[in-house]
Known about the structure:
The chain is of the alpha/beta class. Helix content is 38%, strand content 17%. The chain binds 3-phosphoglyceric acid.
Amino acid sequence: MKILVATEKPFAAAAVNGIKEIAAGAGHEVVLLEKYSDKGELLSAVADADALIVRSDKVTAEVVAAAPSLKIVVRAGAGYDNIDLQACTERGIVAMNTPGQNANAVAELAIAMMIFMSRNQFNPGTGGEISGRKLGIQAYGNVGRLVAEKAMALGMSVMAFDPFVPEDKMRSEGVTPACSLEQMYSECDFISLHIPATPQTVGSIGYDLMSRMPKGACLLNTARKEVINEAELVKILSDRPDLKYVADVAPACYVELEEKFGRQVFATPKKMGAETAEANINAGLAAARQIAAYFSDGCTRFQLNK
Ligand code: 3PG
């Protein structure tokens, strides 16, 4: 079988080598499409692919239609808002992600961002410490849990809001369950977002929630830029010059934000949460193993479109 690895943002070399080894061991061939700038390159490359490994690359209905042999697509990562699951299902293509595999890298970035914003983005002037501060985790999944663990080790107290996780589990891990998002935003010095981008969450974080944050609080977004209501973000930052916003991947209005709010805001130029060799290796190799297991045994663990 031909496995296409299509990564506009390439994996570390060690991850690519590992994917090739796993594929070769299972009798498959790997074709690489890296750093492509044109959608047309992806459409041509998928034409004879049996399997596809991507990162945030968009697997649209058009891509699916251009891939007549495609049987499985694996998003090497957690968020799968880039995959048209319906188009895959209609064609009988199995879609998977690799949950948890890059979670530590994202969690470390969230911690780094808290310190970076507390220390004036490493510019001169008196900053603050995160020890003793309260962190609110919005969505206590693979990343949220790791952020909580690291934050507690650094002396923070942690609260989390996640209607899908039992409160006892949070408590047993030293985390206080929040009764509501409103309560969490009102009480926490930092809020770290770990929600996926879904029709329910897109644009869901805006003026109302941020206006509840205590003086000097900071909102961290290592999730998806789409979950922020950008017009309301501009308004609250303007009404509350004490608040801060830091994001892994710039919002569409970032030029305006930087001009208006200076060091109240910071965004990475390109999404870098999962940009570690370790995360690339974990997620890339997991994707290759999942494809090999699907072809050999029909294994559909981690299938998203069941
Ligand atoms: C994810 O959803 O796994 C992260 O956002 C990482 O995305 P990336 O593979 O494009 O860096």
